[in-house]
């Protein structure tokens, strides 16, 4: 459910205080744990270190990001891959194709 329009967007006040009256080049990366904070137009050009549960991921804010949340750009879960027989067959075919292309390149030299 979206936030009520009469309340306005949620922007963490501490983040706004940290960037108030300063330039992005002076400070560098601003570490934050406020993943739920929305990106406001004042934040464009700044680099935030958004915590993903393990480490701080650097997020450079651009104009396209305004209105989104900081947590959207710092994924907290890492997808490895689905396993199984089908995946093994695909990996094996890919490896064979690489070997064949390497042999073809060697033969042409």
Number of helices: 3
Count of domains: 2
Biggest sheet layout = 3 strands, mixed
Strand order of the largest sheet: 1-2-3
CATH C-level class of the largest domain is Alpha Beta
Low-pLDDT segments, ≥5 res: none
Q: Give the DSSP E fraction (strand runs of 2 or more residues).
A: 5-15%
Question: What fold name goes in the CATH topology slot of the largest domain?
Answer: 30s Ribosomal Protein S19, Chain A
Word description of this protein:
It is a single chain. By secondary structure, this protein is α+β, with helices and mostly antiparallel strands. It has two domains: 61 residues, Ribosomal protein S19/S15 (30s Ribosomal Protein S19, Chain A), CATH 3.30.860.10; 30 residues. Helix content is 32%, strand content 13%. It is built from three helices and three strands. The protein has a three-stranded mixed sheet, with no helix packed on it. A hairpin with a 4-residue loop joins strand 2 and strand 3. The chain is elongated, with a radius of gyration of 22 Å. The model has no long low-confidence stretch (mean pLDDT 90).
């Amino acid at each position: 459910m979206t936030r009520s329009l009469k309340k306005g967007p949620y922007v963490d006040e501490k983040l706004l205080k940290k960037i108030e009256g300063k330039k992005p080049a002076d400070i560098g990366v601003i570490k934050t744990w406020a993943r739920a904070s929305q990106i406001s137009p004042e934040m464009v050009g700044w680099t935030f270190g958004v915590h993903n549960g393990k480490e701080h991921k650097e997020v450079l804010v651009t104009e396209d990001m305004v209105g989104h949340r900081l947590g959207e750009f710092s994924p907290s879960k890492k997808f490895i891959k689905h396993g199984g027989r089908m995946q093994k067959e695909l990996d094996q075919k890919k490896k064979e194709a690489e070997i064949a292309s390497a042999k073809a390149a060697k033969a042409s030299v």
